[in-house]
Amino acid sequence: MADNTTLVRLLRQLVVESDHFVGLFGEWHGLHRTDMNALVLIMDADRRGTPLSPSRLAGAMHLSASATTSVLDRLESSGHVQRARSTTDRRKVELRVNDKALDLGRRFFAPLSGAYTAAWESFSDEEKATIARFLTASIDATVAVRGEIAGSPTDG
Amino acid sequence: MADNTTLVRLLRQLVVESDHFVGLFGEWHGLHRTDMNALVLIMDADRRGTPLSPSRLAGAMHLSASATTSVLDRLESSGHVQRARSTTDRRKVELRVNDKALDLGRRFFAPLSGAYTAAWESFSDEEKATIARFLTASIDATVAVRGEIAGSPTDG
DNA sequence: TCGGATAGTTCGATGGTCGAAATAGTAACC
DNA sequence: GGTTACTATTTCGACCATCGAACTATCCGA
Question: Which residue range or ranges hold the HTH marR-type domain (chains A, B) (predicted)?
Fold first, then answer.
């Protein structure tokens, strides 16, 4: 009933659905997938007090520098993000989000976290701890596998 | 330690990492994200005995018919997929996967499921059942939220 | 102050995606 | 049985996200 195969299938299904949700949400707000991903990264870093630079954003998204410039142009002209030259090193640009982006984030997470909270009501604290452990292990495994394959571009 | 916020964060992280893995894997095999997604859908349907048609594939991927044609052109010329006219309705095309695609699927899932199996060794059957219940509930919640928002394109 | 290195942008080319029109086939109707 | 309306898929022309290479601005070491 809940063997590993089932879990893998459920996991994949969850990823597909979440992915789908992100895509649709972005569409409704006139943002591409890439823009959504970038915005999340910029917001996270900004909130953490260590604003991202374009090049670090490019690295995190596995995107070329020029493509990243395009993404930022779009996000800036749509009013979600601001570019500010660093005061200490004027080559660098610090990326900060506007209220519009924060608002977007709330609109994104509010319905999701609401639905999740409701869906997870029936789980005890112990069970939630187990689930957290499971998710963490799965994340680590995913990252590890990615690292392994990175070295062997098995071309068929 | 494992409150809902933590779970949401872990879930998002898992989705991001999985997404990333799919993207990289596709790159190594010369396939775009779209091609990967299409291939998975075609394989699933083929295995189920009800091969997909281009238009149904387009619907499932939220892609235009013309874009779907391009995807299939790529998958066909790369040898992953075959187009076959339906014998009953010759307007229709039935999509079937070649051995190459099955091989690709194995190469994709083998390392992943291996890593997951190892990562999940420490979980009891009871815990796995709990986790399966959690994943199912989360999938349903994601689908439900998507359905809700679908009606309200909250433009900012 | 000069030369090399770094951060970011601009430019031309490639190619994935789209909407509209074209093509091929089926079904309905007289 | 032939004409018309409809469906499934492909082709065509345009758009734009992405890429690599060249360019500008800035910093650091000698």
Answer: 4-140
